[in-house]
Each structure stands twice: as structure tokens, then as C-alpha cells.
Specification:
Strand order of the largest sheet: 16-17-20-15-23-21-22
Largest sheet: 7 strands, mixed
Number of strands: 25
Helix content: 25-40%
Length: 544
């Protein structure tokens, strides 16, 4: 069962060790190392549980894993703590567990509906189904297996399917990504969401890694298992079911229209539509759902050999199996223009992929398999776009679309992407094919001038930023590094306004949630937002 909220645990006490550094080349079992840290014989230490594992690579000659560990002792922990009095990195573990959330008393006439089967939609559906609310999930795209075949066909042949692609379908856009689970959101339910992912087939190490990722290959199985769990608990899931209209009476939601001709009465609908459901945004705007323009970013994908990044980040240990493929995070602020350029959605050992959701547009994204073994590193290099750069609540959508269509033209009009070497981009030239690594984007690339499919302020900011990034990561600005255009779907350009109870500020019963609604920025934060939106329904309404 899904556990909700948090309380205090009462079980055998453990000691928690934090900031515990272990050199990467030290293969001593953690139990022995923990005993040494506690100044105990090895036989006095029982189970050792990794709570967190990070990498400290600031000194390339002394790279270490940094752990937080829970240690079970075979001696009185009070004696150990007394002996180590004053050591701030060794404390008695204080574990929190979810408290029971009591369902509300208001009755529902109709089952709640969840629109969208991305991370927010799936987690909201899981919460509601396991609490007895029997939700109906409507997903405009196809199930993850059919969708995977459609996407592969697009990448191999260039035949685009507007109903089943990287943006639309079971699992949402994150299904074809690196599957990162990092988030800046500090939510007490994060541990439990990770446990749910693990129980659905995600690698167990996501529970403790500092930068956990699932990988697109394993994430597809996780998505399917979550759907089956929802159905087993009483929920329903329909594919090819696009919500094309909503019915509102006196400021209250009364129903949804699916595929233009099917009416579903409902008083509760949780909208997890994703950042690319442009037609749905338009429909909601026309129905006067309160919305606002939101900042986002636009740019390109940059691609390097993975071993270049490994050597810079990890020195002679780069490329080893213990450390895995190295990543990076880069930011540049232009004081004159006020613009910022930054790396985004960095995919170690990944690929640049075609991520269009509309006919006649080229969109790029990054994706990695769990093993991150493609031999290439890629990341978005994006520049911030503000609501002052366009007009109207939905102006950001048109802004994105314009440059996607220009990229489509620059690439040749058949979903090939325009590419340019960093050297050509910086020097205002085009056509070079002296790539440092072969571009990974499929269905193919066309050497072109990316300045023709990017806003001038993006070109100017990136041209300043890339050499600065080259000072931080030697070789990053290599003349042969590959730039692929365009990256436009960094986040939603729209925010659907809601109150503190996750409900639309002007439509009772409409719950905007997740990345598309403007309240999340990745798989984990979207999943958490879906959980919290569902709980706001639970505390008000009784099970259906």
C-alpha cells in the first residue's frame, strides 16, 4: 500500500554516519570501514545500509565516494555515542515514517479523472486507486510498447506520428530521456516515491545515489508496471483518449469531452498534460481557465566524446566502471544583456534524439540507456526566454514553434536536424563536417547555419558562453564539437494557476499538476507534484 505523510519510527535503533569518505580505489567492505570509523572490532558491526552515495572529484588525485550510512551495532549504541561524543557526523538515527492520511467526507458522484499518464498522472492515479477512488486515466498517446515502436520507426525512417511520439504517450516525455530522478524539491515523500519506482523495476541504487537515474530502457518497464499496479488497485487506463474540451457550469467542472465526441461527466479532474500539449493549452485558455505566461529556455544540444568529459572530470580514473560516465553542470551569466546560458538535461553516455510533437518541426532532446555506454556525452545549452520576449499568455508556444519550424527547414524538411561544429558557430561559418564525434541524432543531420533557426539573443549568448565553458572543461569548446538544433522544450511556457490546495484558482474541480502545468521540472518533481495533488483530493473527498 502507498503510505502517506510522515511520523516517527519505532524499531531497532541504528547509528547514522554522514560525510564518510572512501577513496574510489579502496575495495574494503563498508562494514569493516564503518567499524573502523566507530572504533569498534569488525565483529561488532552488523548490517550497513547505504543511505546516500556521492562522488567528490574536486581533487583528481584523490577522488572519493562520500557516504551516509546506517549501521546496525551488536553492542550498546549508547556506549559508542558516549565514546564518540562531539563527533557531529555520528548520531542516533531518527527515522520518519508516513502517517495515515484520513479521507475526507464529501461524496463524489463520478469517479475522478486523471488527464495524462506521465510521472504526475501515474503517481496521482496510484495514490487514488490504492485509496479506493477508482480513478480513470485518459492518455492521448499510446501504451509504452506501441509508443516505443512508433518512436523507433520515426527515428529510423523519418515517418512522424503526431499521436505517438517522444512527447505523447504512456510515461510522458521522460520515458525517452536519461531518466534522471534528481530534483531541487525538498519533499518528505521523496523516499517513498523512490521506493515505488524500485518496486516497479527501477534499479535499487536510485534509493541512495546522489544523482540517480533509471535510463530509458528500464524506465519503460517501470511505467508499464505502474500502470498494471493502478489497474490491479481498481483504476482504469485508456489510451488514444485525448481530452478536447471541458464543461464548466458556474465556475465548476462538470465534464470532459474526449476525442471530440465522447462526454465524460466528472466533478474532479487532475490535469497532468505535459509541457507539449499545445492544443490542450489552447482549449483551456479558450475556456478561460486562469493561466499565465512562464519563462523557459531555448538553445541547442552539444555533443562530445564521453571520454573527453571523463578525463576532465575524473582525471586518470575517468572511464572506470566504479565512477561511470561523468557529467557536468555549467552556467554563464552575461552581465550586459542579463541573459544566462546553462547546460540542461545532461546525458552521460547518451544520444541526441528527435523529439517533435507537431508536423513540420524539429525538436531535440537527450536520452541515455541505463548503462550510459554510447561513448558520447550530450547536453542542452539553453538561454533563458522571458515573457517579455513574446506577447500573450500562449505567446511562448508560438515562440517555440517558430524556431522548431525554422530548424525543420534548415535540416532539409524531412525531420533531419541542422548541425554545426562549434568552430563554425563561433566564427560565423557553416558546412564543416570535421566532427569530434559523429552526430547521434536520427533520422539524420544536415550541416547548416544554426544562426538561421535561433533567436539572435540566443546566438549571441551562446557564442560568449561556449568559450567560457571551455575554460572550465578543457576541450568543451573544441572546434569539432557538435551542435544540433533546436532544443525548445526545456520546460512549459505556460503556468495553469492554482491555489494552495492544488486546485485551479477559478475552476472548482480542476487540478493542474506536473511539468505541463508549470509546477515541476523533471520526472521526480512531477511525480511528487502528482502525489500531492492527489492527496489534496483525498483529504476532501471520500473514496468513490
Amino acid at each position: 500500500m502507498f503510505r502517506l505523510a510522515w511520523g516517527t519510527k519505532g524499531e531497532d535503533e541504528l547509528l547514522r554516519i554522514t560525510n564518510f569518505r572512501v577513496p574510489v580505489d579502496d575495495d574494503t567492505p563498508l562494514a569493516i570501514l564503518a567499524a573502523r570509523r566507530l572504533r569498534l572490532p569488525a565483529g561488532n558491526v552488523g548490517a550497513v545500509i547505504i543511505i546516500r552515495q556521492a562522488i567528490d572529484a574536486r581533487r583528481k588525485t584523490n577522488i572519493s565516494f562520500v557516504y551516509s550510512l546506517d549501521v546496525e551495532l551488536k553492542v550498546a549504541d549508547g556506549q559508542v555515542l558516549a565514546r564518540l561524543n562531539g563527533d557531529k557526523d555520528i548520531v542516533l538515527k531518527q527515522e520518519e515514517l508516513p502517517k495515515q492520511v484520513v479521507s475526507g467526507t464529501k461524496s463524489l458522484e463520478f469517479q475522478p479523472v486523471i488527464v495524462g499518464a506521465g510521472p504526475a498522472g501515474l503517481m496521482a492515479a496510484l495514490v487514488l486507486s490504492e485509496r479506493g477512488y477508482r480513478p480513470l486515466v485518459l492518455e492521448r498517446g499510446r501504451d509504452v510498447d506501441s509508443r516505443s515502436r512508433d518512436v523507433t520507426n520515426f527515428w529510423q525512417t523519418g515517418r512522424f506520428d503526431a499521436d505517438s511520439n517522444v512527447q505523447f504517450g504512456e510515461g510522458g516525455a521522460g520515458t525517452f530521456s536519461d531518466g534522471k530522478l534528481t530534483t531541487r524539491v525538498n519533499d518528505p515523500r521523496m523516499r517513498e516515491v523512490l521506493d515505488i519506482f524500485i518496486s516497479a523495476g527501477a534499479p535499487p541504487e536510485i534509493g541512495y545515489l546522489h544523482k540517480p537515474h533509471v535510463g530509458t530502457d528500464k524506465l519503460r518497464a517501470v511505467v508499464k508496471n505502474l500502470r498494471q499496479r493502478i489497474i490491479a488497485a481498481g483504476g482504469q487506463v485508456e489510451f488514444g483518449a485525448q481530452v478536447t474540451d471541458i464543461s464548466v457550469d458556474d465556475g465548476r467542472l462538470t465534464g470532459l469531452t474526449v476525442n471530440g465526441n465522447r462526454h465524460i461527466p466528472c466533478e474532479i479532474a487532475l490535469f497532468a498534460i505535459g509541457h507539449s500539449a499545445r492544443d490542450t493549452f489552447l482549449m483551456l485558455h479558450q475556456r478561460k481557465v486562469a493561466m499565465a505566461a512562464k519563462a523557459f529556455a531555448i538553445g541547442v544540444r552539444i555533443e562530445h566524446p564521453q571520454d573527453l568529459i571523463d578525463r576532465v572530470q575524473y582525471g586518470k580514473l575517468g572511464g572506470g566502471s566504479k565512477l561511470g560516465a561523468a557529467d557536468y553542470a555549467l552556467v554563464y551569466h552575461d552581465k550586459n544583456s542579463g541573459r544566462s546560458a546553462f547546460s540542461f538535461c545532461m546525458c552521460p553516455g547518451g544520444l541526441v534524439v528527435a523529439a517533435a510533437s507537431e508536423l513540420g518541426g524539429v525538436v531535440t532532446n537527450g536520452m541515455s540507456f541505463h548503462n550510459r555506454d554510447s561513448g558520447r556525452a550530450n547536453s542542452a545549452l539553453a538561454v533563458n526566454v522571458t515573457s517579455g520576449d513574446y506577447d500573450g499568455v500562449l505567446g511562448g508556444i508560438e515562440f517555440q514553434r517558430r524556431y522548431e519550424q525554422l530548424a525543420f527547414t534548415c535540416g532539409g524538411g524531412d525531420y533531419r536536424a541542422p548541425v554545426q561544429t562549434v568552430g563554425d558557430f563561433i566564427n560565423g561559418k557553416s558546412g564543416s563536417r570535421n566532427f569530434l564525434t559523429e552526430p547521434s541524432y536520427q533520422p539524420g543531420v544536415t550541416p547548416a547555419d544554426l544562426r538561421l533557426c535561433l533567436p539572435d539573443f540566443v546566438v549571441e549568448t551562446l557564442a560568449k558562453a561556449i568559450p567560457i565553458f571551455g575554460q572550465q572543461i578543457k576541450g568543451f569548446d573544441h572546434d569539432g564539437a557538435v551542435l544540433t538544433g533546436v532544443e525548445t522544450r526545456t520546460s512549459s511556457p505556460v503556468r495553469i494557476l492554482r491555489g494552495p490546495e492544488y486546485q485551479s484558482i477559478n475552476i472548482v474541480g480542476l487540478y493542474p499538476m506536473g511539468e505541463g502545468a508549470g509546477y515541476a521540472g523533471g520526472i521526480m518533481s512531477a511525480a511528487l507534484d502528482g502525489v500531492n495533488a492527489a492527496l489534496s483530493v483525498v483529504v476532501e473527498y471520500s473514496p468513490f
